[in-house]
Every structure is written in C-alpha cells, then in structure tokens.
Amino acid sequence: MRGFFHFVKFMIEDHRKYIQHQRTDFVVYVVLNILIVLTLYYGVIVAFPLMFDTCSTPVLMLNYLWGVWLYVAEQSNLQLIRLRDSSIFTEGDVQSDVTTGRKDAVSRGTQGKPLTRTDRDSTISRRSKVPDSWHYCVPCEVTVPPRAWHCSTCRSCILRRDHHCVFAMQCIGIKNQCNFMGFLLYTAAGTLYATVLSFLIAVYIQGVSCWVWLLRNVLIFYVILFDFSLNNLLASLNFIGCVFSVGVLVYYIRLSLAGQTSADHSRNVCRKVPGRSMFSLETMREFLGPSPFLRVAWPFHEVLPNGSYNSNDMKRFEKHQ
C-alpha cells in the first residue's frame, strides 16, 4: 500500500513538472512572437522610410514585400517545427522496430517492477555511455534507435534529438532540423536588416559616433535609463537579437557540416565519416538531405520519408534489423 502512495505522489510531482515546463515554453513562445513583430516593424516601417525618405514608391513596395516575406518565413518555420514532430511514435520507418521490441524491452528493462526515479536515472546513465547503440528507454517503455533521446518535456523519445526548443515548444529532431535552421536564418536576416538601418541612421543622419552607437546597443539598460525612446529601445533589441541569431546560425551550420547535433557536440561525439574531412558538404547533405541550403531557405520543403541518418547510422539500423 505504501508503494502505491509513493507511486501516486511521484506521478503528481512529475505531472506538475511537465505542466510547469509547458507554461514556461508558452510564455517564451508568446514573447518571441511579439519580438518578431517589433523587429519587422522597426526595420520595415520605421527605419527604412526614415533612412530613405525620398525613395520612390516601387522601392518602398519592395521593402514592404521583403518585410512580409520575412514574417511569413519566420512564422512558417516556427509552426512547421511544431507540426513536424520527430517523436519515435510518429516515425513510420522505425515504428515497426519499436512496436516489435516493446514487449521484450519492457521485460528486459523493468522485469515487471514499477518504475522509480532511480530506474530512470540509472537508465539515462547507461544510455549516455553508449550513444550509438539501440537502448531501452524506461519512461517510453521501448527500445529506441541510435541518437534518439528522451525529452522530459515532450514526454517522448525524439529521433536524432538536438535539443528542446522553448521558442517553438517542441523538440528539434530529424524531421524539423531544417525548419529550425530556417527560422534562425530568417531571424538573423530580419534583425541584421534592422541593425544595419539603425547604424546608418545613427551615424549618417543623427551624427552619432560608431562607438557610442555600439555602446548604446550593447548596454540596453543605458538606453532605458539615460537615452530612452521607443526607436532606441527597438534598435537595441534588434542588435542583441542579431548577434544571438547570427551566432547560433553559424554554430548550427558548423554542426551540420560535421554531421553533428548539439547533443553530439556537448558529449564530444565525433560523426566524421571515414574518407572525408571533418567538415564536408557531403556530410551536410546526409545530415539535412539533398540540396541542404535550399531546404533551409524554403520552409515548405518535403520531409524525407526515411529521415536523414548518415551512412554510419544506416549501417547500425541494418545490423539491428
């Protein structure tokens, strides 16, 4: 009886933790959407007409069309990240292996005993030592393929899991990796566009020195306390967003060229294919799919039916089968 109450207490605590994660993700998601609108508003509606006040109507129309495309591309990628779920239970190519191995995996992993937090911790510990093997996930009660990891927020194992993205309220995995990079690309493009216009206005119209402009944008509290205006605040937010998004985009391009996820990089797992350099376009094609740059730039690209595991991973799949 005591064991039953401990189990109920554990489930309640786990459910509260899950709800708390979802609430946090939702708040971040709403804030992100507000910032996207403010970024495009400053760059397209405020900064561009202020910088080029005598430009012709066709140029203004091109500016507005560019702003519309940036918003459509960012929102499309953001929503497709959520729709293209990389959960192990929605991937048809490995579904049969997972279903077939469920009964055996449960008997091997739990021996019919109730799950405890110690069981989960020990499973994660064993799993981290063999990142390239099929392993048993206690919470999902299935045997999952290499590079699939459990997400406590999504409550599922994610194929080729990269990380849980609080901005999209979804895990980044094998199906939505390109959309995540596309979102970074267009966020970087929008914030860079607004930042360049902000620099031109400050230096060439307002007569501010480059160092003062840089200091004003880096130290946002200086703008709030001593030089507050809505335009200065939006310029500072754009600058910070530009530095962050460009830096993360470059980081993920580097990982893609090496065939790595951020989880691989944090665990120092090398994905170098024999006979290739560490950073290779061929490795990037295997990681993201054919025409990887086009797939990143176009939000509505087709999801590959068999995922995009590299040649080494496919050999492990064939060995398992």
TrEMBL record:
Catalytic activity: L-cysteinyl-[protein] + hexadecanoyl-CoA = S-hexadecanoyl-L-cysteinyl-[protein] + CoA
Subcellular localization(s) per the UniProt record: Membrane
GO biological process: protein targeting to membrane
GO cellular component, one term: Golgi apparatus
Keyword Metal-binding: no
Annotated stretches, region: Disordered: 100-119
The Palmitoyltransferase DHHC domain, residue ranges: 133-266
Keyword Nucleotide-binding: no
Cross-referenced InterPro entries: Palmitoyltrfase_DHHC (IPR001594), PFA4/ZDH16/20/ERF2-like (IPR039859)
Alphabetical list of PROSITE patterns matching this protein: DHHC
GO molecular function: protein-cysteine S-palmitoyltransferase activity
Membrane-crossing segments per the record: 26-50, 56-73, 183-205, 211-228, 235-253
Cleavable signal peptide: none
Membrane topology field: Multi-pass membrane protein
EC number: 2.3.1.225
Keywords assigned: Acyltransferase, Membrane, Transferase, Transmembrane, Transmembrane helix
Domain characteristics, as noted in the entry: The DHHC domain is required for palmitoyltransferase activity.
Assigned protein family: Belongs to the DHHC palmitoyltransferase family.
Name of the protein in its database record: Palmitoyltransferase
Organism: Allacma fusca
